[in-house]
Amino acid sequence: MTAEHPSQDHLISVLVRDEPRVLTRITELFGRRGYNIKSLSVGATEAPGVSRMTFVVGGSKGIVEQAIRQVEKLHDIIKVIDHGLEKFVDRELVLVKVRITPETRVEVRQIAEDFRARIVDVGRHALTFEATGDEGKITAFIEQMRPFGIIETMRTGRVALTRGSNADIPSHVYHDGQTQALEPQAREQQAREVGNLF
């Protein structure tokens, strides 16, 4: 009997139109098919009316490819980007509230300085730090603070962009979905143009 391959993390970005329930539809799709979403970040893009969702999905390569194909079929999906196919830059943010004593205050602050974390709140018995970086840096920072006593943490989840200009990015990185997500916008534009003729 062969051992199962361990689950790997895959980083996927999805460009979507800003429409009600689009996030719900995507997460429900993942849930129904048993895909494990380990983190999720959502934010506006440079294009008005378009948001970017970044998922960290756990599973085999085949599972992730199935997830991409299913997401592409949803309405309002503009583009799916598989960051595992090309070099990318990623970051996440964490807030860490650490217990301090007069004896540990200096050491805790020194560790934070080594990680370029900054203090965002000061209490009598705790300091709250903000740190940004890739997943490895954030995990290492939390582990360095753990022996002092972590009271609370909050991680945003990863966000990512493929390195280079869009012209440099191979076409296989972008998955063109089977969706008419942009058609409503095109129809609205055509209607306005026709209206202007009369």
UniProtKB/TrEMBL annotation:
One of its GO terms (biological process) is L-valine biosynthetic process. One of its GO terms (molecular function) is acetolactate synthase regulator activity. It holds the Pfam family ALS_ss_C. InterPro entries: Acetalactate_synth_ssu, Acetolactate_synth/TF_NikR_C, Acetolactate_synth_ssu_C, ACT-like_dom_sf, ACT_dom, AHAS_ACT, AHAS_small-like_ACT. GO terms for cellular component: cytosol. The keyword Amino-acid biosynthesis applies. It catalyses: 2 pyruvate + H(+) = (2S)-2-acetolactate + CO2. Residues 11-88 form the ACT domain. It is an enzyme of class 2 (transferase). Pathway: Amino-acid biosynthesis; L-isoleucine biosynthesis; L-isoleucine from 2-oxobutanoate: step 1/4; Amino-acid biosynthesis; L-valine biosynthesis; L-valine from pyruvate: step 1/4. Gene3D superfamilies: 3.30.70.260, ACT-like. Chain A, domain 2. Catalyzes the conversion of 2 pyruvate molecules into acetolactate in the first common step of the biosynthetic pathway of the branched-amino acids such as leucine, isoleucine, and valine. Belongs to the acetolactate synthase small subunit family. Dimer of large and small chains. This is Acetolactate synthase small subunit. It comes from Deinococcus maricopensis (strain DSM 21211 / LMG 22137 / NRRL B-23946 / LB-34).
